[in-house]
Amino acid sequence: MATQTSPAAAGDRPTKEPAGPARPGGGRQQTTKNNRWSTVLHRLDVKGAPYAFIGPFFVVFAAFSLYPLIYTAWISLHRAELASMDLMEWVGFDNFIELAKDDRFWNALGNTFTIGVLSAVPQLLMALGLAHLLNYRLRGSTFFRVAALTPYATSVGAAALVFTMLFERDFGMINWMLSLIGVDNVDWEGNKWAAQFAISTIVIWRWTGYNALLYLAAMQAIPLDRYEAAAIDGASRWQQFLKVTIPGIRPTIVFTIVLSTIGSTQLFGEPLIFGQGPNGITGGADNQYQTLGLLLYEEGWKNYQMGRAATVAWAMFLLLILIFAVQRLLKRLAARSS
Amino acid sequence: MKITRNLLRTRGTAVISAVAALGLLSACGGSDSGGTGGGVKDGKTTITMGLFGVMGFKETGLLEEYMKLNPNVRIEAEIAGDEQTYYTALQTHLAAGSGLKDIQGIEIGRAKELVDTQADKFVDLSKVSGNDHFLPWKLSQVTGKDDKVIGLGTDIGPMAVCYRKDMFEKAGLPTDREEVAKLWDGDWSKFVEAGKTFKKDYKGDKVAFMDSSSGLFNAMIYGNSEQFYDKNGELIYKDSPVIKEAWNLASEAATSGLTAKLRQFQPGWDPGLANSTFATTVCPAWMLAHISEKAGDQNKGKWDVAKAPKGANWGGSFLGVMEKSPVQEEAKKLVAWLTAPEQQARLFEKIGNFPSSQKALEAPEVANAKSEYFSGAPIGQIFGAAAQEIPDEQVLGRKDGTIKDIFSQGLTLIESQNQSPEKAWATTDERIEKAVG
Prior knowledge:
heterodimer; A: mainly alpha; 2 strands; B: D-Maltodextrin-Binding Protein, domain 2; D-Maltodextrin-Binding Protein, domain 2; 46% helix; transmembrane helix (chain A); ABC_transporter_permease (chain A); MetI-like_sf (chain A); transmembrane (chain A); cell membrane (chain A)
């Protein structure tokens, strides 16, 4: 609205008004006063209104992101139990030192990493292939695009529950199918790698279509003449894909890698539901698929040790920052070397 | 003219957004009026309840009936399926001081922790009239300092062994419940011996003798008056002969392939019941409803109930009234009514939750109860006798529920991860240190 009237026009208006002799001086003074007031208002409008518009976000951000972040840091320096949060005991960095010495933390970190790689790499590769296929002229392409996005629209809970039933040891469908080709029942939940694979499947199923659509959007922005030029030069489809498509959507690929890294670090719902009950919280009887998110939950909402849970939360936060610092560094090095 | 209108509109929007933002914040600040608790409106009292699992009040229509008897009372019950989830929410609400219901269910594994740390948030129920009908040890479990009683008892969990007659027959074991009970009379290790015979002689499909080793472990430790803690609240599980013996026998069962490697009430257990993959399960009275529901009609009459080697109590709950409740008096009345002998007897008749009231135990509909599903087993008699065998003192500990979970997982390490019992014990020990330290 403010942009509809240009500031110059508004500010200049009083001076443009002819000072007719018929007007009494008092009236004129009144106008200047009015004008000054409206100038102030106008200033406020132009300079202040944007802040008012973005204000709510920052208020909400401060209340629901910044404050919890700082408060979590504060709690992590204490020994605090959920039932008696009013009686926190200052322990300095003890929680962090304890965490660094705790096998469970390193185990969870390792699991988070392995499940992350197991799920992110195939997921992104498959998404790339899927996007490439969707990028062809297809009959009913809208249908396929919507279909690709359907798993993403499913809730984590529902998806994880269904997969848990599929991967069930005694009566699950996957073991039944394996038995047809003579493979003995696999204890998907109890075996470390089987469990991590099963959990990754849930993640892959949910996110592949989503990433594919991101890639597809980027692919459609690549000018067609590049493909034509490549075709004239005698490049095969595969070569076109490698030399034109991939470089063309590189920023999107980086973006999806960043997204999946964040997603993997926070992996929580899938393993929790996959284990169900006490085993879900601890990530299996042997912590074989406990992620950092689950460790946080176990400390906070099973052991009710809020100080230690907050420490895990901050460790996760610092870890993400570290990952991005490393990534930026690599990018800079790569840029310098080329 | 146009400018001013624009200005006004802009300012208006700005003001609205600022107000909206503040509104959002204040809405989150919450009020200290007791959260979602009930209240009195237009002469009608609303009482809210937080329950878990199959406590049965809503399912059997008792709440409906109370509302009919007291037309001025409306009851809103929220039931969480899983006790762990329920307790986590309760802890959070207690810590925050909001979101509590007027009446909250208390599971036995959490009773001590609540008595020790949260007693001031519960109303004292020791003076409620007619609460002298409970078993002697029931109310003492929720009695804290100054004889404050934070909850009235609902059910208890005397234990027996539920077994499959058809499978016992196939293994050449006796099928009559009296003779089956004699197989392991007085000693749980005889139960494991019977399992070995079963495993050796069973002809037919792959069927395990028992569902899980943790069920056996629970049954053994709950036959003693002290489990993980002693009377002074000290952790004694490390040196307790009872725990050691239960651990050794349960891990023996696990390593001898007697178990179906399931975890009770976890995924796989229900289909195990439905598809008949195990022959026995140690069953507290409240588990019968679950078994008959999950094992389904096709297995009706194949199950039976035999006396356990030793009397023990697994589970049982309480109902407490919150200090913050605006309708304390009404809530107390409701709790007293729900836990009265008549109602407990009816709950038992309908869903098999065993009464914690001495009076209800003597009622003919309890004492003479038979279960059609379990081959007409005289469950009133069997569980009644088991209830009398339960030690008169039941020492609870603050983290009983958590420690029990950790032990179950320790046994899973042996069962499913093929760890040695020694290594699994070391892991269990370390985890308990972490969880309670």
